[in-house]
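Weekly puzzle thread! Below is a chain. First person to post its structure in token form gets bragging rights.
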Amino acid sequence: MANHMMSSHSTKIVPADQATLVNHATHKLEVVKPFSNEYAREALLEMVIMNNHPFTLVEEQSFIKFCAILNPNFRLIKSTAFRNAIFRRYISERKDIIQYFKRKSIGMVSATTDLWTSGNNLAMMAVTVTWLTFDFVMMEVTLGFRELQGDHSGVNIANCFLSILTEFGLQNRLLCVTTDNASSNGTFIEELARLTKDFDHPFEKENWIRCQGPHPQLSSSGRAGMSKAKCRKVLIADNFDIGEELREDEESPGEDNPFNRVLLPLRDVPTRWNSTLYVLKRDITIQRALDATTTQREWRGSEIHEEEWEKIKEAVEFLNPFALKTRFLEGYKYPTLGTVLPLFTKLLMSLEKWNLDADHSTESREAALVATEKLKK
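Winning reply:
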């Protein structure tokens, strides 16, 4: 009734001179408070947080001009003060969430965790929990997004994960854990079960849910036969500035050549989906630069021969179907559950077709066979 009155008869509820807007997330009409600097800053703070804008937005001249046009009385603060305001908001909301978990009898929670390696080589770990209220409303909150100190071992992950749950008082409310297929997650679950065995509600290993999307690691055993050691040669110039080398070369092509941009080889990250494919694609892109690098004295013996480049290109063709399907299943703006089985079946068919194609190398056909057997388990 309240929604109907606000959407159809808002003039009878909200004064005519009072501004309103439609919340596109809830599809509800919301009343906009009269202007004040405090209210405007809170709204700006929420916009930056929700849309991941940089803190320096408040110091950009075009944005300052835009705000002045909307309301000359709005006083913007500096980016440092803005950052501090966001941190204060985080601390405040974190305390509210902890108090919420203490006050509410929410029952058990389901957790999801994952690790990333940032661009500056920091290992980051995120933990999200989901639960149902007694009104059967699904709730979700991100408990932590922090740097993982030490190695990526399962024991280290388990300790960090449990410490985050403990901070929010959820160590005895863990129902299940969802992770990806990283090899360290098996040890993580074993250690988590061991650490909680004396708790009121210990975590059961059977409640570990593995992410079910197709993963390029499914064929890792088969790829081992595709001259894996030789393919690793493409990483020899990992810290070598290929772009600078070509710019100093008198015979380097003109501006139309893509090597005028600095493109370095990528590192293969075992826990990142399609990582091997992206590494090999980048190496094909900078093939001429890699070949030029390996002619230098310090890189001799690491040359990638033409037949090896052909195997790398074949590996890219082999891995492409995995990437296409994982990218589709990673989508969040459309439903994907109903497409899992059709995509899974299509992947099996493409692997079986590859295995029967005599034009492909024996090594890649063996890789397709291994991947097929693993998918069917």
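Puzzle host: Confirmed. Bonus trivia for everyone else. The chain has three domains: 20-91, 106-210, 216-376.
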